[in-house]
Amino acid sequence: MEIYGNEIANFGLKQTSGQCMGLIVGGHTTNTYVHDNYVHDGFGELFQFHGSGENNATHIVRNNLFKNSQSNGMGIYGATDAATIDISDNTVMNCYSFAVQANGKYYKTLVKLHDNTFIACNPQDTLSHQYIRIMNNAIVEENNNKQYQQRY
User: Fold this and answer.
1) Residue 104 to residues 37, 84, 111, 117, 140: CA-CA distances in angstroms?
2) Distance CA 51, CA 39 (A)
3) Whole-prediction pTM
4) What is the spatial distance between Cα 35 and Cα 129, in angstroms, rounded to a whole number?
5) What is the pLDDT of residue 77?
6) pLDDT tens, 59-111?
């Protein structure tokens, strides 16, 4: 599945829990590629992932702009079969909470974060990495991410 070239804005206006996300890669999906999208100005998470690691599936999130959320920038949640997701060259900015929340919940989701830019996201959990919240069985590998405090 490939998702690209979209602009998604003003989502989650009713603020219904579990129904407020901008761009979602649903559960049990395999071999996904999300790139060159602009997701902005919403109530819930700008991007949410629930993909599967079944049959060594690959998941790539690259070169997206995620901006202005009343929640996390990205929510990475393992649904089945210990998914691995490669997240690179994205900009996540102006989030109320974390730039990335990784939650393995039932499986050991592996999140490879590299060469991303995180701007003005407010970490709510001082025990986690500055812009990243790691929960349950999630595993996060970080490399060459940049973080800035100033809002734009």
Assistant:
1) 25, 11, 10, 23, 10
2) 19
3) 0.91
4) 25
5) 87
6) 999 999 999 999 999 999 876 678 899 999 999 999 988 999 998 877 778 99
Bridge-based pairing of strands 110-114 and 139-143 is: parallel
- pLDDT confidence tier of residue 42, bands split at 50, 70 and 90: very high
For strand 146-148 and strand 84-88, is the pairing parallel, antiparallel, or unpaired? unpaired
Sheet strands (E) in the chain: 2-4, 7-9, 23-25, 32-35, 38-42, 47-49, 59-62, 65-69, 74-77, 84-88, 91-95, 100-103, 110-114, 117-121, 132-135, 139-143, 146-148
Percentage of the chain beyond pLDDT 70 is 91
